[in-house]
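Students often ask why inverse folding is considered easier than folding. One informal answer: many sequences map to the same fold, so there is more than one right answer. In these notes we will look at a single instance of the problem. The structure comes first.
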């Protein structure tokens, strides 16, 4: 009796890996943009005082 494979097949692993990379890239990009906006707004607020 053959042993059942645990986990996804190699093609499925490749697809999941690609999706995870895109998700991580999107998350990091969003955080960088958010940080730039926060720093810009903080600078603008200090200049008004």
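Output (designed amino acids):
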């Amino acid at each position: 009796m053959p042993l059942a494979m645990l986990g996804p097949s190699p093609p499925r692993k490749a697809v999941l890996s690609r999706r995870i990379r895109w998700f991580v890239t999107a998350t990091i990009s969003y955080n960088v943009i958010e940080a730039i906006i926060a720093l810009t707004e903080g600078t603008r607020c200090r200049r008004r005082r």
